[in-house]
Amino acid sequence: MITKALDLPDPDSLKVQEVTIGLPALRAGAFHCGKQCENQNNEFMLCRQEEKDPRKCIDEGKAVTSCALNFFRQIKKSCLEEFNQYANCLDKSSKDVHLKHACHRVEATCVIDLNTRSHPNKYDCKVKVFASLEPKPDVDAPLEFPDAPVSLPEVDRKEAKYGTRFHWMT
């Protein structure tokens, strides 16, 4: 329910440049973009889980979008031709742009080089614990409703005369 006391953010504060590329290119860069933007994404997801209010995580969401934009700008600057070839292979090899087809031979090596510079070898095999720089939010007291109606008393029911009361379980 929305009341007058609900404080909505200003619509101008919600405007952010979006990542406007197609599904094949997003799917082609998803793994590497996820690796490069891991800290921002973890910060955003932790904020969403702890705060339980998306209005408080707008800045973290903007950081994730900004990181993804910067990643695809790096791709455009350094290896657009190879990346487009890989995205085109994904697009043409299956109707649902799955990564399981033979396109792994075409994958842009320059994208892999971008990530290996920022992440050490065997990065995916190591256990990672995310340590947020943001302070942990205060835990709100559980909701209590003093004017809630009293629940109905328990009634001793007799066995059903013509079978089970739960007809869908037979």
UniProtKB/TrEMBL annotation:
<keyword id="KW-0677">Repeat</keyword>
<protein>
    <recommendedName>
        <fullName>NADH dehydrogenase [ubiquinone] 1 alpha subcomplex subunit 8</fullName>
    </recommendedName>
</protein>
<comment type="similarity">
    <text>Belongs to the complex I NDUFA8 subunit family.</text>
</comment>
<dbReference type="GO" id="GO:0006120">
    <property type="term" value="P:mitochondrial electron transport, NADH to ubiquinone"/>
</dbReference>
<dbReference type="GO" id="GO:0005739">
    <property type="term" value="C:mitochondrion"/>
</dbReference>
<keyword id="KW-0249">Electron transport</keyword>
<comment type="function">
    <text>Accessory subunit of the mitochondrial membrane respiratory chain NADH dehydrogenase (Complex I), that is believed not to be involved in catalysis. Complex I functions in the transfer of electrons from NADH to the respiratory chain. The immediate electron acceptor for the enzyme is believed to be ubiquinone.</text>
</comment>
<keyword id="KW-0496">Mitochondrion</keyword>
<keyword id="KW-1015">Disulfide bond</keyword>
<keyword id="KW-0813">Transport</keyword>
<keyword id="KW-0679">Respiratory chain</keyword>
<dbReference type="InterPro" id="IPR016680">
    <property type="entry name" value="NDUFA8"/>
</dbReference>
